[in-house]
Design goal:
The structure is a single chain. The protein is built from 5 helices and 5 strands, in the order E-H-E-H-E-H-E-H-E-H. It has 152 residues and is an alpha/beta fold. Strands 2-1-3-4-5 form a 5-stranded parallel β-sheet, sandwiched between helices.
Length: 152
């Protein structure tokens, strides 16, 4: 039976080196909708950063929460010149959009590591100290960290 619900759009801002976490993030949102949202008539809609114009002037009006995840790079090559970090700054660090930001501490194969990109991740991580973030090494730790109640 259809019900009315308040819909909140959750931007999944994840660099292109994050694979499994994208699936887990969507599952976390779906699980929240099933366990909590339905009781409160709230629906969290996962929105991939790849499918949104992150440079829109009124992006804050379109996105209600952000889940950002980073490992070895802060960019997503599928999005061209659009910067995930600038979007995270605008919405979460400088703005008022509720956010959860995670940084992977998984081992990085040195043969694939771009030192400049990894340095940018570390710089952004330092910026996030003022708002907070979580770290993880395993998919289970990521699920626990991204399931924080601050999105809902």
């Amino acid at each position: 039976m259809p019900t009315e619900a308040t819909v909140y759009r959750v931007l999944l801002a994840m660099a292109d080196d994050i694979g499994q976490e994208q699936t887990i993030a969507k599952d976390v949102v779906i699980d929240w909708n099933s366990s909590t949202g339905r009781k409160q008539d709230i629906y969290l809609e996962p929105v991939s950063a790849v499918h949104v114009d992150l440079e829109k002037a009124d992006l804050e009006e379109e996105i209600d929460a952000v889940l950002g995840t980073f490992w070895t790079t802060v960019d997503d090559t599928r999005m061209g010149e659009t910067s995930l970090v600038e979007t995270m700054r605008r919405l979460a660090l400088d703005g008022e959009t509720p956010s959860i930001i995670g940084f992977s501490e998984q081992n990085v194969p040195t043969s694939t590591l771009d030192p400049e990109s990894f340095s940018a991740v570390q710089d952004f991580r330092e910026e996030c100290r003022k708002t907070g973030y979580f770290t993880y090494e395993t998919p289970e730790e990521y699920r626990a960290g991204s399931s924080s109640p601050s999105l809902g």
